[in-house]
Design goal:
- The protein has helices at 3-23, 25-33, 80-90, 131-145, and strands at 40-41, 44-50, 55-57, 93-101, 108-118, 121-129.
- By secondary structure, it is α+β, with helices and mostly antiparallel strands.
- The protein has one domain (3-145): Beta-Lactamase (2-Layer Sandwich).
- Helix 1 (3-23) crosses helix 2 (25-33).
- The protein starts with a helix and ends with a helix.
- This is Single Cache domain-containing protein.
- It is a multi-pass membrane protein.
- Keywords: Cell membrane, Membrane, Transmembrane, Transmembrane helix.
């Protein structure tokens, strides 16, 4: 499903994790918060949360920095930040899907986020998919893997 987009999101997060391991927490969060930094590219960007759901860095929604978003719900009233943190705490990495508005158009779209835990933080990167593209990717996955 959305193989190229998933790979792009995963690559950007892994680069942020490697940068954090090399340069340290403070430098990594500063770089993630920089909308002209290396973790914003080709329509993708990374952001960081702590394990309680507080936003540590975001390059575009800077007003969220320092805000507890654990109860933030998607368009279906599902607490997607809580889901991100549950996966981060249990597996350490993974993907989460939810419905969200695209900032440029305010259109409700499916968003897929790749997340990876590093120390007491979670680095994330997501992408938007139209419902049609999402369904096509499900059918391709079904054809490839058979029924799930």
């Amino acid at each position: 499903m959305n193989t190229r987009e998933r790979a792009e999101a995963r690559d950007l997060v892994r680069k942020a994790v490697a940068f954090c391991e090399d340069a340290g927490r403070g430098a990594a969060l500063a770089e993630i918060a920089d909308r002209n930094g290396q973790f914003v590219r080709n329509g993708y960007y990374s952001y960081a949360l702590d394990l309680t759901g507080t936003v540590l860095a975001h390059p575009f929604a800077t007003e969220l920095t320092g805000r507890d978003c654990i109860k933030l719900e998607d368009s279906n009233e599902k607490p997607f930040i809580r889901r991100i943190l549950d996966i981060a705490k249990s597996k350490g990495y993974g993907f989460v899907d939810y419905l969200w508005h695209r900032p440029s158009s305010r259109e409700e779209l499916r968003k897929t986020v790749y997340l990876e835990r590093v120390e007491d933080m979670v680095f994330c990167c997501g992408f938007y998919t139209t419902e049609q593209d999402y369904l096509v990717s499900l059918f391709k996955c079904y054809d490839y893997a058979g029924p799930m």
